Amino acid sequence: MKKTLLLSVVASTMIMAGGDIVPVEPVIEPVVETSGWDFSGQAVLYYQTADAAGTLDLFEQNSAKANAGIKLRATNKDLAYGIGAGVEVNGLGTLGLQEDAVLTPMQGSNGWISQAYLTYAFGNTSMKFGRQELPKALSPFAYSEGWNVFKNSFDAALLVNSDIADTTLVGAVVFKANSSVAPTAFNAINSEDGKGSTSNALLGTDDPVFMLTAQNKSIDGLTLTGSFYYTADMELATTEDLMIGWADAQFKISDYAVAVQGGTIMSDALADDALAYGAKASANFGMFGAMVAFTSTDENAPFTNTGGVKTPLYTQMVANQGVIAQDADYVKAGVSAKALGGKFAVNYGYAVANDDDIAGGADNNPYELDVLYTTKVFNDSTDVLAAYVLTDPDTTADSTNIIRVWGRYNF
Questions:
Q1: Kind of pairing between the strands at 342-353 and 222-235
Q2: pLDDT, mean of residues 154-171
Q3: 91-to-136, 357, 384 alpha-carbon distances in Å
Q4: pLDDT attached to residue 114
């Protein structure tokens, strides 16, 4: 099937990450002369089982979830007068597995329009209007998560400009979002009923969320990114304006990399402004890799993605977001190796300080162990993940074992 490069403001793909699946850093795609429609898609089989702190057995029906999914995508760079368009639909089912093998679907059993947008470009400026995915590297608090069957998306207007040398400026107005766990309903991020689109605590009126991001790469190997969010009348303890400031600096030289991050959530509705920061170092040694990271969050508000359940923190793993998002100092260390036609990774995370009852109980030290294997099969058309996760809340409750397996065929 013929594939052409669409005019996309930001493109991102995945192998393993941010916790669950590691995101490949987004890039601003150049305008490519082409015409006509480009059709593509993805078919997914997804299975997960968890013994739920010892209350269930692995692989029994009540502990398992699964989905079969299909994604169909059509894009056209130039419908008329330089205006492009894209549409994407997702459908989910279980192939009857809920009758004998699993209790519930992983992400649902319905269909929805996951993307529907128009694009336009002039000079060094690109615009994208409508339902779309947003990348974590340029929108750390409103991004599309890749850990579930399909990504969540946003109703937004996005503008990207690269007139300044080695600098990308991104402006966005975000109106609605679905959720990475319940994707069929799109709700206002800042909704009048206080429910919003996700379980994130930072939700309130129907005002949109405004975002501005600047990313600079003037110094070889150094990427500096800063983001600022604003929304009016956010319902927290009381209804007040909300602002988020976040910065990230990453420096890579040869096979070594270091990074720092930090930011604040500001609102008169909070007792005090919330603060978070972190650092990360990584290295590659041929077929082997290693990394270590630390993050710290205070008790004033959770640093959680709107439209999903994950965080932008360096210590995000498969299932530890409930521990690290608020009031915890957390260390993560990992090693990886390329072997058996794919990549193995082992990551261990530990809450060195957990001062509140939000995650695991006061003064406890929850930890997580992730063992993951990713590969490509069938002439690299299909991505495969197999993961084992052990989480221990360091309370009287038992630890939880999770097994997750999925395959994604891209056509």
A1: unpaired
A2: 97
A3: 24, 39, 20
A4: 97
Give the residue among 349, 371, 370 at the shortest CA–CA distance from 360: 349
Q: How far is CA 218 from the centre of its chain?
A: 27
* Residue type (1 letter), 380: D
Q: Of 92-106, 185-199, 256-270, give the lowest mean pLDDT range.
A: 185-199
Give the H or E element holding residue 404. strand 400-410
Three-state DSSP state, 69: strand
Higher pLDDT, 233 or 229: 229
Q: Indicate the length of the chain as a whole number.
A: 411
What is d(CA 96, CA 86) in angstroms, rounded to the nearest whole number?
Answer: 32
Q: How far apart, in whole angstroms, are the C-alpha atoms of residue 389 and residue 401? A: 6
Q: Give the tens place of pLDDT for each residue, 124-158.
A: 999 999 999 999 999 999 999 999 999 999 999 99
Q: Any long-range contacts for 214-218 (C-beta under 8 Å, 24+ apart)?
A: 214/167, 214/168, 214/169, 214/170, 215/137, 215/138, 215/167, 215/168, 215/170, 216/166, 216/167, 216/168, 217/166, 217/167, 218/165, 218/166, 218/167
pLDDT at 236: 72
Please report the pLDDT score of residue 240 as a whole number: 87
CB atoms under 10 Å from CB of 134, counted, come to: 29
Say if residues 206 and 178 touch (Cβ distance below 8 Å): no
Q: In the predicted model, is pLDDT for residue 12 greater than 90? A: no
Q: Is the Cα torsion angle 278, 262, 307, 301 positive or negative in sign?
A: positive
Please give the full DSSP string across 9-23, using - where no structure is assigned.
S-B--BSS-SSSSPB
pLDDT given for residue 62 in this prediction: 92
The sign of the torsion formed by the CA atoms of 214, 319, 345, 16 equals negative
Residues 6+ apart with CB under 8 A from 387: 318, 370, 371, 372, 373, 402, 403, 404, 405
Q: Give the count of alpha carbons within 13 A of 72, CB side only.
A: 7
Residue 336 corresponds to which tokens in the numbers above? 């990886």
Q: What is the DSSP string of 235-269?
A: ESSSEEEEEEEEEEEEEEETTEEEEEEEEEEE-TT
Q: Report the chain's mean pLDDT, rounded to a whole number.
A: 87
* Cα–Cα–Cα angle for 174, 135, 367, rounded to 5 degrees: 110
Q: How far is CA 135 from each of CA 18, 152, 172, 242, 358, rounded to the nearest angstrom?
A: 12, 11, 12, 22, 28
- One-letter identity of residue 61: Q
Q: How far apart are CA 20 and CA 223, in angstroms?
A: 23
